[in-house]
Amino acid sequence: DVKVTQSSRYLVKRTGEKVFLECVQDMDHENMFWYRQDPGLGLRLIYFSYDVKMKEKGDIPEGYSVSREKKERFSLILESASTNQTSMYLCASSFGSGPTYEQYFGPGTRLTVT
Amino acid sequence: AQSVTQLDSQVPVFEEAPVELRCNYSSSVSVYLFWYVQYPNQGLQLLLKYLSGSTLVESINGFEAEFNKSQTSFHLRKPSVHISDTAEYFCAVKAGGGNKLTFGTGTQLKVEL
C-alpha cells in the first residue's frame, strides 16, 4: 500500500514563527502536492512538485514556499506564520502526470497559529 | 479553467435510506471526474473515478456515480446507507491532460440511526 506520512497531526505556532511541514511518501512517486483544507472552501492547491527541485505554484501560493531536495520528501514552509494560515494541511502524491494517476493523501496536519 | 460545485454542504439521512450527493462541473475541455471520501480525522481516499468508457462507475462499498455530459454532472448515489458511511465527500475534476485536481467544497454526509 502507498503510504504518505506527515510529520505532525497537530501543531501550534505563534504569529511570525517560521513553520516547516514535512511530507514523506514511500512509493517512488514523481508528483507531490500540498493543499490546505478549510470549512466551506474544500481543498485548495498551494504548490506541487513534479520532480526533485522542481515546483509549481498552485492556486494560493502566497505566504508559502516549498522544498523538494529528495524524491520522497516534500516540505511546506511558512516563512512568517500568520493567523489566517490556521488550517488543515494535506499532502498528496501520485505516480505520474496526467488524469489517470490517483493522488494518495496523508492524514493531514492541523496547524493553529496564535 | 475548470470548477466544481457541490451545492449541498450537509446531507442528513437515516440508516438504510438512499442518498444522492450532487456534483456539477464546468470545463471547456474533456474532463476526468473523481469522488474522494474523508472519514473523521483521516486524509482523503479515492472512492471512485470516471476516466472514459461506461458512464456509470461503482465503488467497492456500494456507491455509484454517473457521468452526465449534457448536464455536466457526476452525482454520487447509494441505495442504502450505513452508519459507517458518515464522512465528508469531495467531488474533483481534472481537465484535459493536466495533473491538477480541482475540488468542490465538500458535502458532509451524516447517517443517523
Q: Would you summarize the structure shown here?
A:
Chain A is mainly beta and 114 residues long. Chain A has strands at residues 4-6, 10-13, 19-25, 31-38, 42-51, 54-57, 65-70, 73-78, 87-94, 104-105, 109-113.
Topology at a glance:
The complex is a heterodimer of chains A (114) and B (113).
Chain A: E1 4-6, E2 10-13, E3 19-25, E4 31-38, E5 42-51, E6 54-57, E7 65-70, E8 73-78, E9 87-94, E10 104-105, E11 109-113
Chain B: E1 3-5, E2 10-14, E3 19-21, E4 24-26, E5 31-38, E6 44-50, E7 56-58, E8 64-68, E9 73-78, E10 87-95, E11 102-103, E12 107-112
Parallel strand pairs in B: 2-12
Antiparallel strand pairs in B: 1-4, 3-9, 5-6, 5-10, 7-8, 8-9, 10-11, 10-12
Please describe what this structure looks like:
The complex is a heterodimer of chains A (114) and B (113). With 114 residues, chain A is an all-beta fold. Chain A has no helices and eleven strands. In chain A, a hairpin with a 2-residue loop joins strand 7 and strand 8. Chain A starts with a strand and ends with a strand. In chain A, strands 2, 4, 5, 6, 9, 10 and 11 form a seven-stranded mixed β-sheet that branches. Chain A has a four-stranded antiparallel β-sheet with strand order 1-3-8-7, with no helix packed on it. Chain A is globular, with a radius of gyration of 13 Å. With 113 residues, chain B is mainly β. In chain B, 0% of the residues lie in helices and 53% in strands. Chain B is built from no helices and twelve strands. In chain B, the strands form three sheets. In chain B, strands 2, 5, 6, 10, 11 and 12 form a six-stranded mixed β-sheet that branches. In chain B, strands 3-9-8-7 form a four-stranded antiparallel β-sheet, with no helix packed on it. In chain B, strands 1-4 form a two-stranded antiparallel ribbon. In chain B, strand 7 (56-58) and strand 8 (64-68) form a beta hairpin. The radius of gyration of chain B is 13 Å and the shape is globular. Chain B starts with a strand and ends with a strand. The chains are: A mainly beta (114), B mainly beta (113). The A-B interface holds A 4, 31, 35, 40-45, 48, 50, 58, 90, 92, 94, 97-103, 105-108 and B 6, 9, 32, 36, 41-46, 49, 51, 90, 94, 97-101, 103-106.
